[in-house]
Design a protein that fits this description.
D-Amino Acid Oxidase, Chain A, domain 2; 548 residues; 23 strands; FAD/NAD(P)-binding domain; alpha+beta; eight-stranded mixed sheet; seven-stranded mixed sheet; single chain
Length: 548
């Protein structure tokens, strides 16, 4: 609720970055260091973050391709970077319900030996400290509610009001969100960012592009019995528990002698309406190859997020009049390697270099901001995205054609498959309930410390929201829920990784528990009737990924 008649503070800055993720922080750090090196006046750079702390909403695997870091960090900073372990051994396996077969050979692009394994939350927090030391002003607990325009130019962001109650009345501590006006706004909100999607639609920045493809990734951290000889071992899997028509796979990383990260990534263009993402995750953990690594362990963290997998042909324009889009918000992720942090760094560096040049000339026109995509198109990351541009879309034809297209892309350095493979939005792939797909039965929840029910897992995410606030999840036309329940069996109760949606069978309606929300936005993406809208809640809410 953002009424126009509120008295609002106005804050003027040079550069406003929305979202304190890697891409935004890399932008701020690069810009400020470039200005310092050139001896020019230090610009005012503000970074706003909807979470309670920098890094609190950052969730990833994460095996980091370090190649891009040399353009951002000094040798001393690279040495001091928080690293959990380095990859000492790699296993790629195809899982069947009871066994597995190891892939004997993988292309060089898939190798990660020696790469750092990091906690993205810790890394983001650390990077935020560097940006602050360089002069950036970082403000958590400050979500953006809407973009400000003058004509067609973006001129700032209005912050979310605080203090409305769930009935739409002002509470005693009501505080109208300020208008932050800037010469340029950098959108680094992550995948399916709220303001980013509004901007793309208003300015038609994705016109002609493929619809973005998303995947939901569920992840747990485990404390396990000490195994110092296993530190740095990583597993990547495909096959079970996913059916042959569903793109995705699992991972397990040995972060330390007593710490393991395990996760399952499920593409959101899956067809079976019966799929329950958390059930598939638990079935994956019960597989003999994975269960052996978790034996004797106990869950200490949980989270979920969406990944933008559409690749090169799903990218929007990266700049427009008054705004730049960086990192996952722009869809910059290599879905073949399942890596995006290095692309977030590269896009942030290119954005920061462009803004430094704009400041020097005092020119923030659309033409000047075009320097950002021009710079990014010269990077290795862009070239890698182009090389595998048809790989993800080819999986719409099935697993074997998708694998073949990926192999051709890598072997021919992008010459094959030729042309462009088009695809439909993720929600359009869902089939009616009872289409006949046989899904694996998950193990009984709470049967061990390795198999938690969804709400117990959710507790380990640290998720909290102010209860007395307007819901940030909206069913746009509640009467259409009956249609969805009849046709698809209320899929929102299964694809949500946080039990936000509950079916009231006697009323044939959906009840929303918004306080459970992990901010992944799976509901908005996968709902087959496109009847759910996610908006930013009051600041400080959501998960608290401190070790993820």
């Amino acid at each position: 609720m953002q009424p126009e008649n509120c008295q609002r503070d106005v804050i003027e800055v040079d550069v406003l970055c929305v979202g304190a993720g890697v891409a935004s922080l890399a932008t701020a750090l690069t810009l400020l260091r470039k200005c310092a090196a050139a001896g020019t006046a230090k610009p005012t750079v503000m970074v706003i973050e909807k979470g309670a702390a920098v890094g609190g909403h950052s969730l990833s695997g994460a095996v980091l391709d370090p190649a891009a870091l040399t353009s951002l960090l000094t040798p001393e900073e690279l040495a001091a970077m928080p690293v959990e372990a380095r990859v000492t051994g790699e296993t790629m396996a195809r899982l069947t319900p009871t066994g597995h077969s190891q892939v004997p050979w993988a292309p060089p692009e898939m190798h990660a030996h020696g790469f750092p394994i990091i906690s993205l939350s810790k890394f983001t927090t650390w990077l935020g400290g560097l940006a602050e030391a360089a002069g950036a002003e970082i403000y958590p607990d400050m979500p953006g509610a809407e973009l400000l325009f003058e004509g067609e130019r973006v001129v700032g962001v209005r912050l979310r009001d605080k203090g409305w109650d769930k009935h739409g009345q002002k509470r005693a501590h009501f505080d109208a969100g300020a208008d932050i006006r800037a010469k340029v706004v950098v959108l680094g909100e992550g995948a399916c960012g709220f303001l980013t999607e509004k901007l793309k639609a208003k300015k038609q920045m994705a016109k002609g592009a493929n619809p973005q493809a998303y995947a939901i990734g569920l992840k747990e951290l485990f404390d396990v019995p000490a195994a110092p000889d296993r530190v740095g071992q990583i597993f990547h899997t495909f096959g079970y528990p996913l059916d042959s028509g569903t793109y995705g796979g699992g991972f397990l990383y040995r972060l330390g002698a007593t710490r393991v990260a395990v996760g399952l990534v499920i593409a959101l263009d899956y067809a079976p309406a019966e799929i329950n993402t958390h059930d598939l995750f638990r079935a994956f953990k019960a597989h003999p190859l994975i269960a052996k690594e978790l034996e004797g362990g106990e869950v200490c963290g949980y989270g979920a997020k969406v990944l933008p997998e559409g690749g090169f042909f799903a990218l929007p324009e990266l700049s427009t009049d008054g705004a730049l889009i960086v990192g996952d918000a722009a869809g910059l992720l290599d879905s073949v390697r399942l890596k995006g942090i290095h692309l977030a760094v590269q896009s942030g560096v290119c954005a920061g270099e462009t803004l430094a040049a704009c400041l020097q000339k005092d020119d923030f026109s659309a033409a000047a901001l075009q320097g950002y995509p021009t710079r990014f198109q010269q990077t290795q990351g862009w070239k890698d995205l182009h090389k595998v541009r048809n790989a993800r879309a080819a999986f719409k034809f099935g697993m074997l054609p998708g694998v073949a297209a990926t192999g051709l892309s890598l072997v021919t350095k992008g010459l094959l498959p030729p042309g462009r493979i088009h695809r439909e939005p993720d929600h359009a792939a869902l089939k009616k309930l009872g289409a006949g797909t046989q899904l694996p039965a998950p193990p009984r929840a709470n049967s061990s410390k390795q198999q938690l029910d969804l709400l117990t897992d959710l507790f380990h995410s640290g998720t909290k929201h102010e209860e007395d606030q307007p819901a940030h999840l909206h069913i746009l036309q509640p009467e259409r829920c009956k249609e969805c329940i009849k046709t698809y069996g209320a899929p929102c109760t299964r694809f949500c990784p946080a039990q936000v949606y509950e079916l009231e069978e006697h009323e044939q309606c959906i009840r929303i528990q918004a306080s459970n929300c992990l901010h992944c936005k799976t509901c908005q993406i996968k709902d087959p009737l496109q009847n759910i809208e996610w908006v930013t809640p009051e600041g400080g809410g959501g998960p608290a990924y401190r070790e993820m």
